[in-house]
Amino acid sequence: MNELNHRLGAVSSPYGIYSYITSQTYDGYELLGEYDDIIRSGAVFVASVMPVLEAGFTAIIPTVASQIASVMRKFPDEGVVVWLRYGFEMNWYRPEAAEPRYHGTPSEFVSSFRNVAEAVANNPMVSMFWSPNNLGGDSAETLDEWYPGDDIVDIVGTDFYPLARNQAFRRCYKEFYDRFLTGKDKPFAIGETGASGDLKEHWLRELVTQRKEEYPNYVSMAWFEYNKEVDFRLVMGNRSTLEDRRRILVLE
Questions:
Q1: Is pTM beyond 0.90 here?
Q2: Which residue in the list 34, 89, 108, 229 is annotated as catalytic?
Q3: In principle, which of 1, 22, 130, 227 could form an S-S bond with 153, CB 3.0–4.6 Å?
Q4: Which position among 96, 145, 192, 213 bears the catalytic label?
Q5: Number of domains, the chain
Q6: Predicted confidence band at 138 (pLDDT cuts at 50, 70, 90)?
């Protein structure tokens, strides 16, 4: 992240790292392996924790939740704000999906989310981030059963990757935003997004040019800065286009 910030000439807002729960003993080694870089980055740390153990969501009992909370506590101790994106895309990584995958029902997910929320509740620098997959931008109603509740969700977000140039922010996010954010004093953060090829600049502008009047809760977006299946990289990839992208991200 420090190299990315150096190339941008600015400090990135969110810094996301993935971590897997594969048993009822959780040590967060993926997160702690980047500990020094996270601290130096100056970013909000988005800890994307995936409970992919065979026993499913029901395995995330209070003792396991306490282990998650212990790992998260190490970052606020150094002044880092943590958004705990627990069980993100819970509606996408279903048992029929390719690895990694979740096991369990919506109600079991909600119970596990609540266990984790209770475990971190005494740390004001750790927020619970609910981040389903938007599944095309037009299926917000189907997410109701996966929503843990206003009392324990601190940040509402969604993951979405556009596939066509005519995609617009409004089409992809407004229904979700209206359903889960309207009338609520909660931040809206895009947990994960990205585009490849010629679509990159179009989609980046869509993300950074929305009017505050229409989306007053919109606070941040996290771009998937990675070469996976396709090249999503904005900053760490093609240097010939870096200046254009830097101008969009930093100046627009």
A1: yes
A2: 89
A3: 130
A4: 192
A5: 1
A6: very low
